[in-house]
Specification:
88 residues; mainly alpha; 85% helix
Length: 88
């Protein structure tokens, strides 16, 4: 469990965010795999449709989580470049 009051520096907050996003991505991926497997064997078309809708939503969450992870990495790299450029 993460607590905001335990965050002491920007680096610690960034690390905490990275861990949370990685965990969320793993949970989304596991859910997507489970939903896809259940949809593949669903015998009732209505059940398959419900599972497909749920899979679509989880897939979107996974894509957004991965995009945010990538954005945070890009921002951190940009900040490092700016710090390096300012030092020169």
């Amino acid at each position: 469990m993460f607590y905001l009051c335990s965050v002491k520096t920007d680096a610690e907050m960034t690390e905490r965010h990275a861990r949370a996003l990685a965990e969320l991505a793993e949970l989304c991926l596991a859910s997507a795999r489970d939903l896809a497997a259940r949809q593949a064997v669903a015998e009732d078309p209505a059940d398959a449709a419900v599972l497909a809708s749920a899979l679509h939503k989880v897939s979107r969450s996974l894509r957004q989580t991965l995009a945010l992870e990538a954005r945070l990495v890009r921002e951190a790299q940009r900040a490092l470049r700016e710090d390096r450029d300012d030092a020169v």
